[in-house]
Automatic annotation (TrEMBL):
The keyword Glycosyltransferase does not apply. Its cofactor is Co(2+); Mn(2+). It comes from Flavobacterium arundinis. This is TraB/GumN family protein. Transmembrane segments: none annotated. It comes from the Bacteria. Keywords: Glycoprotein, Hydrolase, Membrane, Metal-binding, Metalloprotease, Protease, Signal, Transmembrane, Transmembrane helix. It is a single-pass type I membrane protein. It is found in: Membrane. Pfam families: TraB_PrgY_gumN (PF01963). Its main location: membrane.
Length: 284
């Protein structure tokens, strides 16, 4: 079950064991020609408490702009997301599963999303699975990104994105729809209780700021889907972000907020920046 959940949160991760990182979500980027430091925060997209701590608020105050994975301030984002959710080549959920498995998925979605599979028949299976997220927590959903944007607006600062909605949605065209559907069927068969238990473990690791533990948690034998597709889901995106982060940070002191699981591992943002010569140190 954890395969689909991990995709929505965030929380995408690196699977290679790299140098152990300090328990921290906020990191200071300096050196290598930067006139002022920038900051990097590992976020989680769905939480019960998105309160920003003093160090994060201080870092926001010391920077002049906010960069998230995407420009969540874009008024056209919703329309772009809906377009990007659609499968290509006429594929549908119905065509990707046996009648028996489709029925299981349909019942699971009706119970936990409030609509049947027929209404989402053309959506990419992994993205359909993400719609169950509101059922994962027993509280109103809050967002770290939303809080970061709120503070930036109060400071009259702009919000930008490291990638476009089209680029992020295209990631799920690089993984076969058949493979995605297999995971969605497995999720439906396992049921909501296992999903909630998995989510709680992940939330506990995030609250503990334990990036190493988060990597270990997702790098187990049950996580074959992400293990086989980590280059597409994580590594390529991280590498694409590095030259953008460099150029942005050299121009202005910037606060970067990306899913926490993007930070760890040999191909994580922290190690990639260090390999480029930057000093990236935990803010505690």
């Amino acid at each position: 079950m954890k395969k689909i959940l991990i995709a929505a949160i965030t929380l995408f991760t690196c699977f290679a064991h790299a140098q152990q990182l300090d328990n921290a979500l906020l990191w200071k980027i300096s050196g290598n020609g930067l006139s002022k430091p920038s900051y990097l925060l590992g976020t989680i997209h769905v939480t019960c408490d998105a309160t920003l701590d003093k160090n994060t608020l201080d870092a926001l105050g010391a920077t002049s702009q906010l960069y998230l994975e995407m420009d969540m301030d874009d008024p056209g984002m919703q329309a772009k997301m809906m377009t990007g959710m659609m499968m290509k080549d006429g594929k549908t959920l119905t065509s990707l599963a046996s009648p028996e498995d489709y029925k299981i998925v349909d019942e699971f979605l009706q119970k936990n999303v409030g609509m049947g599979a027929k209404m989402m028949d053309k959506f990419k299976p992994s993205l359909v699975g993400m719609m169950v997220l509101p059922k994962m927590i027993d509280c109103p959903i809050q967002s770290i990104e939303g809080e970061l944007m709120k503070v930036s607006k109060e400071q009259k600062e702009e919000v930008y994105g490291l990638e476009t909605m089209e680029e992020q949605m295209a990631v799920f065209d690089m993984i076969s729809y058949e493979e995605q559907m297999k995971e969605l069927v497995k999720t439906a068969k396992e049921g909501i209780d296992e999903s909630k238990a998995t989510f709680k473990k992940m939330m506990d690791l995030y609250k503990a700021k334990n990036l190493n533990g988060l990597m270990d948690f997702m790098n187990d034998e049950d996580n074959q889907f992400y293990g086989e597709n980590s280059v597409v889901l994580l590594d390529n995106r991280n590498r694409n972000w590095i030259p953008k982060i460099e150029a942005i940070a050299k121009k202005d002191a910037t606060f970067f907020g990306v899913g926490a699981a993007h930070l760890g591992g040999d191909q994580g943002v922290i190690m990639l920046l260090r390999k480029k010569g930057y000093k990236v140190e935990a803010v505690k």
